[in-house]
């Protein structure tokens, strides 16, 4: 009796003879490709940025969470290669989609990357393949968007001829403790064979796989995780705004509250939220809820509060400068940190960039220093990171700490700065901070 498409796929996975395609070799895709290659799977990365594809094929790493040596060795040994087109999709037994899911200007989902990739995959789909979507999206995307495109274009049936699952990425860039391998992996599919195949595949490299009943459930898990963080960050940001009115130190209040051994979880305020997850993902859930005539009040309010924070930082910066008689147009500001998160080379959606532009609009001369970002391109202007020197710090009327990179010597900053606005609370326990530092 001929082996079924499902049995043949499972045998290839267990023998690690399955070829794995990974679409999108960014913060999610490249670490995933490396983990699969490390245990013996041959990985074909489909990366439509030709410069990235060329780097991978030369064994040159560009993602901090990937080991330079591991990538180079895996490429040299033939376990990883990169291509720019979809012609080799037919060779792959499993294809994992790791492409961006941004929002439009109106905060509605933009699935153009996912839809485009799916159409390209559908044109090359063959029986026995497993397609897994890892991109974060609203509940229903896998079944309502991907499945119709794949079935109608290929003429194949999901759950019988090919298999389809959703396993949302849980990458925390820069996290040295939790990596692709040891972060619990959610896997959901809306038919039993697809779910079994996906679970089997992910268990080959990830320590703990957590199955859920459907692709829709898996999609909701991920957007809830990021919504949970967005709402709690908004709560402490609103507390900060209240403490500002009450003339209280929000950091003192939070530090004391977090000593309670139960019933509380530490979250801290800041200049806003950034990256590709927390500012965006909750709005996917908010948008989907409206389809069911359901208003997600917490999500909308959290987004509103978090988006207000750069404006509040701007206001507080001018309050600090006004105390020494300086107007915005006569001020020079040095922003420390332009990335959205400490010790990371990613400035997507960074509130520091919003703050920089707001201060520029007010007429201030604004420089920035970031050890991870040598230059940024903003609406036709190119800004380059200044050198971290005593002179650069001293000549600024205000040093604004927007991102708390670990390698910055904040004692050195305090010693040389005229005035400091610390949006991250990183200086609050340092000597002499009371003399020059204003906490957000």
TrEMBL record:
SMART domains reported for this sequence: UDPG_MGDP_dh_C
Keyword terms: NAD, Oxidoreductase
Residue ranges occupied by any UDP-glucose/GDP-mannose dehydrogenase C-terminal domain in the UniProt entry: 334-429
Top-level taxon: Bacteria
Secretion signal, residue range per the UniProt entry: none
Pfam families in alphabetical order: UDPG_MGDP_dh, UDPG_MGDP_dh_C, UDPG_MGDP_dh_N
PANTHER family per UniProt: UDP-N-ACETYL-D-MANNOSAMINE DEHYDROGENASE
Entry's family note: Belongs to the UDP-glucose/GDP-mannose dehydrogenase family.
Name of the protein this chain belongs to: Nucleotide sugar dehydrogenase
Organism in which the protein naturally occurs: Candidatus Synechococcus calcipolaris G9
